[in-house]
Each structure stands twice: as structure tokens, then as C-alpha cells.
Amino acid sequence: MFLSEKEIEVRYAETDQMGVVYHANYVIWLEIGRTQLIKDLGFSYAGLEQDGYLSPVTNVNVNYKTPVKYGETVVIRTWIEKHSKLRTTYGYEIIHEDGTVASNATSEHVIVKKDNFRPVSLKRVHAAWDAKYVEIAKENA
């Protein structure tokens, strides 16, 4: 299974009055994990945008297990859960330093043309990137 990992040091600004990471910040961490996975595979999301494409989120689901607090370091693990012609589902775990799961999540994305938001297959836009996603999604099946 191809698994990307990215370490995050929890910043004070990410917490609420209780010193616990505010729930919406987890979605930002998912983006960090997703970007790291793409980079680890040798591709560039910024390059995709430069080519005139975007990958908007169509669904996100976050399950909060145990709180993350200021001063902690967590690891975001990211993988390809599913990949089809038009949709990619990423899987995530946010892990405490002691190995316990703080959160697990999924996000679904499509590729669209930047100028008209019409969906287009990743295979048509970047065949090598699509082939890699197909390969590692099968490993995770």
C-alpha cells in the first residue's frame, strides 16, 4: 500500500479556547496530506493548475476520535482510497505521537477545466498521473 506521511506541529492559532485543534483545521491538514502524496508520487498540483485545471472537493468526511492539542506533533497519513474515470477518493488518518488515531477522513475530488468547471478525466489531462493512481488504488483495494 502506498502511504504518504507528513508531520504537522500544532500551532496555537489552530486551537480553540480549550486548547484543542478547531475542527475546521483538520480539513486544511487533509489538503496538506493530499499535496504531500501528490509530491511523493512525483507530480505537482500547482503544475496541474498552471495547465488550466483544478481539482475541487466534492465531498469531505472527517471522523474525530481523540482531540489534538496545542504543542503536539501529529502525522497525516494519506493514500488513494478509490480512483475512477472522473473521481478520486483520498483516505487519511491523523495520528498522535503515541500512535493513537486522532481522526480519520476521506475526501472526493474531480478534475475540471479552470475556465468552465467542466469535468475531465485525469487520464486525458495527465496519463502518467492517472496510471499511478490506478496502480496504487488497486494496491489499497
TrEMBL record:
Pfam short name (any one): 4HBT_2
Keyword Hydrolase: yes
Record keywords: Hydrolase
GO molecular function: fatty acyl-CoA hydrolase activity
Gene3D superfamilies xref list: Hotdog Thioesterase (3.10.129.10)
InterPro entries: 4-hydroxybenzoyl-CoA_TE, HotDog_dom_sf, YbgC/YbaW
Record field: transmembrane: none
Protein family per UniProt: Belongs to the 4-hydroxybenzoyl-CoA thioesterase family.
Protein name (Swiss-Prot/TrEMBL): Acyl-CoA thioester hydrolase
Organism: Psychrobacillus psychrotolerans
